[in-house]
Amino acid sequence: MKIFLTSASSDKVYQHERLRELWMLSSQKHSLCQQAEEADLVLLSDISGPNWFEDLRKNENIIDPSKCFVVADGDIPMPLLHGIYTSNNKRLKFQSRFRTGAYNLFPKEVHNPFVAQCTGKSYSSPKFFFYSFVGQDSSPLRLQLFQRKSSRNDVLVANSTSYFNAHSRKEDHLPQQQKYCEIMTASKFALCPKGTSGASIRLFEVMKMGVAPVIISDDWILPRGPKWDEFAVIVKEKDLDQLDEILEQREKDYVDMGKKAHEAYQTFFADEVYFDYVIDQILDIQQHQKIPERLFWSLRNMIVRYWMQQRQWRFFKKKFYDSQSASILY
Question: Are 194 and 139 in contact (CB under 8 A)?
Fold first, then answer.
């Protein structure tokens, strides 16, 4: 298929360039073209920042919405156009328009550089922790996790809010990032509770490392492809108090689960296969979408107004919009 890659941002093109890198690493069974008109599929990335609603809604490359798809990893997806949303969740209506992706478009500076050194080896490493979690208190669920007391003495749960933020990219974070990987490597299970969004980059990190993940995120929709029940433990948020008992039932399987987690990562989410994975998911959307995308695209201004009025967007509006930029919606 012929693919046209473009940015939906007027001032940011990192993810657009990253998609091109992923294509170069791929099988290249799909080719890239220079014009949207000649493409079978148009992929729009860089869906973030204060003006992305306007930039996307007025993007000149969206001539035929049925072949135009967003690839986005933002915490709160805005469903203006069908596509691959890392934070895809059950609250989004018309789910046939969406598929869930991973964090391969994240800036390299945000990724933990030590994860690659542990790739595929962690399931066979000596284990000192039954399970572990080191992360920020970015959701009520995580606060509950930090306050919870385990009956076991081989559990590590630590709040890193006061000393670590991956997005700040400080050089002194390197020792902390290395320590994080050492803890994950020494754990039979790695907790992946929802944070700002239902998705969590640590899920893909621990899969890459070969550690059995524990997914605690009721609303998040798992990416298609992997046989999640073979290597991941999915815990309902309401069952957090029974976490120890739930994981003890799978404790004897942690080595096999870690190995299968790594295999699933290599099959579906490794950089070398991710571009083809995205295209496969997009083709699946085209095959199963029930309502023509042209209808949703014609209602894009109404969709923006509706979502901006919802409670989950109040913080977003306050952070990114002043009265002048918000006026473009009306």
Answer: yes
Q: Where are the beta strands (DSSP E) in the chain?
A: 2-7, 31-32, 41-45, 68-72, 83-85, 98-99, 129-135, 155-159, 187-193, 212-216, 233-234
Question: What distance in Å separates the CA atoms of residue 35 and residue 81, rounded to the nearest whole number?
Answer: 20
Q: Classify strands 155-159 and 129-135 as parallel, antiparallel or unpaired.
A: parallel
In Å, how far are 129, 148, 241 from 151, measured between CA atoms? 13, 10, 11
Does the domain made of 116-268 have the CATH classification 2.60.40? no
Sequence-ordered list of residues with C-beta below 8 angstroms from that of 248, at least 6 positions apart, any chain: none
Write the pLDDT tens digit of every residue in 121-138. 788 899 999 999 999 998
- Separation between Cα atoms, residue 321 and residue 53, nearest integer Å: 11
- Whether the predicted model's global pTM rises above the 0.70 cut: yes
- Give the start-to-end residue ranges of the domains of the chain: 2-104+273-329, 116-268
Q: Are 74 and 87 in contact (CB under 8 A)?
A: yes
Listing DSSP states for 103-131 in one string gives: STTS-TTTS-TTTGGGTTTGGGS---EEE
Q: Find out whether 281 and 224 touch, Cβ atoms under 8 Å.
A: yes
Tokens standing for residue 119: 């790739």
Summarize pLDDT for 268-294 with one digit per residue, the tens. Answer: 999 999 999 999 999 999 999 999 999
- What type of residue sits at position 260? K
Q: Express each pLDDT in 134-150 by its tens digit.
A: 999 989 999 999 999 99
Beta-ladder partners of 191: 214
Residue length of the chain: 330
